[in-house]
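User: Structure tokens for this complex, please. No commentary.
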Amino acid sequence: MPNFHRKLERSAIGFVLAIVGVSAIGGFVEIAPLFTIHETVEKAPDMRVYTPLEVAGRNIYIREGCYACHSQMIRTLRDEVERYGPFSLAVESQYDHPMLWGSKRTGPDLARVGGKYSDAWHVAHLINPRDVVPESVMPRYAWLQRNALKTDDLGLHLAAQRTVGVPYTDEMIANAPADAYGQANPDSSYASGVTARYGDATNVRAFDGSAGRLTEMDALVAYLQVLGRLTDAAQKTATATKE
Amino acid sequence: MVSGLTVSERRLALVVSGLLAVCGLAMAVVGRNDLLGTHGFVVLAFSLGIIALVASRYLDPEPSEERLSHYYDEPTKVGIVLAMVWAVVGMFFGVWVAALLAWPDLTFDAAWASFGRIRPVHTSGVIFGFGGNALIATSFHVLQRTTRARLPDQFSPWFVLIGYNLFCVLAASGYFMGLTQSKEYAEPEWYADLWLVIVWVVYFLIYIRTLQRRKEPHIYVANWYYMAFILVVAILHIVNNLAVPVSLGHAKSYSLFSGVQDAMTQWWYGHNAVAFFLTAGFLGMMYYYLPKRAGRPIFSYRLSIISFWGITFMYMWAGSHHLHYTALPQWVQTLGMTFSVVLLVPSWASAGNALATLNGAWHKVRDDATLRFMMVAAVFYGLSTFEGSFMAIRAVNSLSHYTDWTVGHVHAGALGWVAMITFGSLYALVPWMWKQERMYSPALVEVHFWLALTGTIIYVFAMWNSGIIQGLMWRTYNDSGTLAYSFIDSLVAMHPYYIARTVGGLLFFAGAVVASYNIWMTIRMSRRAEPAVQGAADMPAAVAIVPGE
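Assistant:
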């Protein structure tokens, strides 16, 4: 063996090839099957895609680095299921490019935060977290309320997501900016298109408390309110496990 | 630095930075409605600065043929200075983010200063800015000495060093503006990633070309590690960053992978960035500077072989231990756990090899703070790899994951191993590079050593405590079978530890400032005086090497 190695370490190219070969095995064995074995991701026929406003909110969530302190992955441990809700299924992040499972909980998990608090709570919490949770160490995100949301390129965002596998239709892409506006302005003529395209269960309301002006706050709250609510596959699994 | 280049190399430098300026201008124009445009101006300003630098010395006389009888160390010198600049910047932001968790309103209502945006400035500033520049600088130094060959040309090392720093600038400035793809330690967007691939290919070519010109029959151990670092980081970087940009005028992109596949790919990258950026590269440093400074040969050649191939093979399986109890299929989690535990064997082989090398030189360790930096680094390497294998066990991970224990583990590695081995190597290297007998102040090296060690210990103990308390509080039940603590209870319990962590970080940061001052004064000392040391034997094997032969 040492003799073989003495030969190997005399050849620069041989050594390079050996490193690439030896190191590639592990990743290949673990990652490649995940794309082919069909059991990796369960089926959830009721799964819906994010609306343009929720996509914009998700991008704000990413921009502000929320993932650094909040996970979106409830593990299969008793205390987590009791604290946060049914454990996360792979299908629930099927349309998440990239996933936001997180690695650290400085704040609580958000995988099922959708619908847990009112919009007004979220807005107050984002403007100054210590107004609603005195011990919180979260930063203030007051500027979200001041910044107008950029919607003109949302169609391009949806189109790019379709390229990587999210089933957005041509109609959804064409109407993206209007749908974003309509979802946060229930009284406008654009609102009806949102439920027509994304389902009756879609939240259509003035998330930041004021209709008319579309802010980054609208988008982020819309996103937070849909977390864990794109499909109820996890609730069904939880019930089935109990029975 | 420019007058050492030949006229044709200066011309090439102008052409390449001109092309880069054109790219910057194009980004500024097509991305004018997006943050991509802002980054276009950053690239443009950066390349115009380089052009001005090269042009100001363009008419200097051609350097003499005598240069070929020396190793080419200018990029190493500049790399050392850049590494220290990034160390101070990255650690400063580290102290700031630590303080934010104790005093959350230190963001002054400014978007750029909030936790989520400056945390990656800290992580990337330290890992890529400080660590990356130190790796590039030392690898060029080690590569030439262990092959007894000069670098193949004088332009490409500058391209790698300066190009790499452009990547770091794009990364850090992007985070302030909110540009991130949210993949931890792979946050920069698609155009910065593409640029890094180009830089990295040139880095690899320098390495392989120099190895092929070597005057030593064997490739020295340190170069195995540097090669593995360059090659595997390239593989990881390319695969994990596959993404589709919103348009060519947008900075934002969407990852090719989603959900569970994306999680596996990300942590395959994330854990192997630890393995091949923060371990293999720095083991390359250790395998050269530690025996050199101790004046002893490496303890065991066989152990080096076992350890090297063990690390290269097994680390790539370990990433899935970041995803225990998640929606990742169970068999992948189990594979990741198993290999993480077995990984202890090659890791400890390296740590043990380093410590055994010091046998017979322990009196030097006692007297020489530089060597003590390296010794402590080897000890922390052993400790944090043990901790890592332990934390990869599913049952332990159920407690430690998502808590500060992970943060403590990472910093035991980052402060205790990566930064300590780097400081030790730089303290050995700086006097050699600037032809001095010793550092400007050995006493300040001693001061730095104790600041760094105290800071690390305070930091790591604070995080161990907070992490374990946090994990236990989350899973504690009271007698009636309900959860005993709310989430916010656990956060309140963290407060004293978060303050302790800030203090530990501050001490470590202060040490880095002391080191920068000491290195800077050593450089100034060399400018004032004649070279104190003539490195008579420190030159390439064949004197009249024609560049690019």
